[in-house]
Amino acid sequence: MNGKNKRMQKGNQWPYIFCLPFLGAYFLFNLFPMLYSFQLSFFDWNGVKTKMFVGLQNYITLFTKDPLFLKSLVNTVILMAFSTPITVFLGMMVAYLLFDTGRGKRFYQTVNFFPYITTPVAIGFIFSYLFDWQSGYINKILVGAGVLNEPFYWLQSEVASKVIVVIMVVWRYLGYYMTIYLAAMTSMSPEVYEAAAVDGATRFNMFTRITVPMLKNTTIFLIVTSIIGGLQMFEEPKLLFSGWATIGNGQTGGPGNTVLTTVWKFYNDAFNMDSRLGYGSAIAYSLFVFIILFSIIGFKITKGRGSDDE
């Protein structure tokens, strides 16, 4: 009996052995860089010279002597605050409309999902070309229709730059949100809708009283993940001002740094000519704390509303 127990215990070691390659890769490429960058945030180091311990000075400088960081944080929150509700709302609407669509349903789903799998570089070039002052199609259409008397400098306007970035985010992720909502709607029981139809409920009542409440958990998931992704926004504004309209003349942060995000700020400070890896690490971990706080707030708000509805 003891020999059998020993063989069983020896056999139970194999799951742990099979997990070792993943655990080793995770520690080497994920956990170790995270811990090392946190340690690095307490040093002044450019990647070449000797590291100098400065304690909390990087964090103090970040919040008291670097107004550009606070501006980048405000920009990020504004862009996230506008893009998230619009994308969630439109994703739900498109999913609901396509859910009952018969002919051509797969085609419309595929077309809406294409932007999500498009490379960010291509998206940056598309939008920077569309809103180009001289050759952009947006100006050509508006001038041709008589809405504008002359071409408008879209990428040189602080307000227009923010609006364009929000449009980019919504256009890119709408297909993903639509797909998640469609999957959630597919799992709903049709008997609930049949019972509501028998009671004389309209399609609007079914949507507001049945579909939306049943999609509560999906909506919470999308909102929280949108907050996390929105606070890490980098590709859309960076590529917009590095694309067609700004080839060879890339503009950091847009006009007046109006679309400078926190991750873009981190990228500029950590990997520019005057590299400050310690300071960049302080930015990264400050953003990490803000992501946790905003995620908790977003979860509490959406979860609270869902509980009240129930």
UniProtKB/TrEMBL annotation:
The keyword Cell wall biogenesis/degradation does not apply. GO terms for cellular component: plasma membrane. Residues 73-298 form the ABC transmembrane type-1 domain. It is found in: Cell membrane. This is ABC transporter permease subunit. InterPro entries: ABC_transporter_permease, MetI-like, MetI-like_sf. Pfam families: BPD_transp_1. The keyword Methyltransferase does not apply. The chain crosses the membrane at residues 14-36, 77-99, 111-131, 163-184, 214-234, 277-299. It is a multi-pass membrane protein. It comes from the Bacteria. Keywords: Cell membrane, Membrane, Transmembrane, Transmembrane helix, Transport. GO terms for biological process: transmembrane transport. Belongs to the binding-protein-dependent transport system permease family.
